[in-house]
Amino acid sequence: MANTLTWQSAVDNLLGMKAEIWQAFWETLIMVGISTAASVIFGTLLGVALFLTSKNQLADNKSLYAGLGNFTNIMRAFPFVILMIVIIPVTRLIVGTTIGPIAASLALSVAGIFYFARLVEQNLRDVPKGIIEAALSMGASTGTIIRNVLLVESRSSLILSITTLMISLLSYSAAAGMIGGGGLGDLAIRYGYNRYQNDVMIFMVILLVVMVIIIQSVGNILAHRLDKR
């Protein structure tokens, strides 16, 4: 009976680990924050390129679209854990280490960029063709159409896509703990799985669920406010 887990023993154990939990929580925020920013910036650029070079669009180019699309598909096909291992040499070269949240952010960013690019492409396809044609008839340049038409008209959908991206990266960040990325996933594995401390495992899961709910709720609110339809 001495090893029976009770509510009080679980609370006491978690309170005793509050410094480690806070550190893991901060590491998760670093990983998700850096990778989300990188994914949104470069994923948007790639997504716009995919959209513009697709059939019947402003820069229709079958060969270029096929090349970009196939490369994006190949990168998206990598399971995240395998991707982290494959790019270890690149991570060491760029970051100087393969351990820690900054190093893990590189793998997360690579996964996120190609995932988000496809979301952006789909969001832009939902923009009514007539709006683009109207802008063209008024002499708008391609850059102006991208900034003031495509991205503006799809802003609500893009916010929801960013929300989906963040939740996916949060999930991936938990897996990053398997190879020394740190974060809540690492804590859950080290204590909840390896040391059979179910209270730690349950608390980490609850914390991740709460984070997902908050991210989704904020995303929904922002998307609703930006939706002018």
UniProtKB/TrEMBL annotation:
A GO-annotated cellular component: plasma membrane
Which BP terms does GO give this entry? D-methionine transmembrane transport
According to the record, the segments passing through the membrane are 29-52, 64-88, 94-117, 157-180, 200-223
Q: Tell me how this protein sits in the membrane.
A: Multi-pass membrane protein
Where does this protein reside within or beyond the cell? Cell membrane
Q: Which InterPro entries match?
A: AA_ABC_Transporter_Permease, MetI-like, MetI-like_sf
What PROSITE patterns does the annotation carry? ABC_TM1
User: Which is a Pfam family this sequence falls into?
Assistant: BPD_transp_1
Residue ranges of domain ABC transmembrane type-1 in the record: 25-219
Residues forming coiled coils: none
Taking the first listed entry, what is the main subcellular location of this protein, grouped into a coarse class? membrane
Please indicate which superkingdom the organism of origin belongs to. Bacteria
| Presence of keyword Transmembrane helix | yes
Write the record's keywords in alphabetical order, separated by commas: Cell membrane, Membrane, Transmembrane, Transmembrane helix, Transport
Give the family per the record: Belongs to the binding-protein-dependent transport system permease family. CysTW subfamily.
Report what the protein is called.
Methionine import system permease protein MetP
* Organism of origin: Faucicola osloensis (Moraxella osloensis)
Question: What would be the name of the gene that encodes this protein?
Answer: metP_1
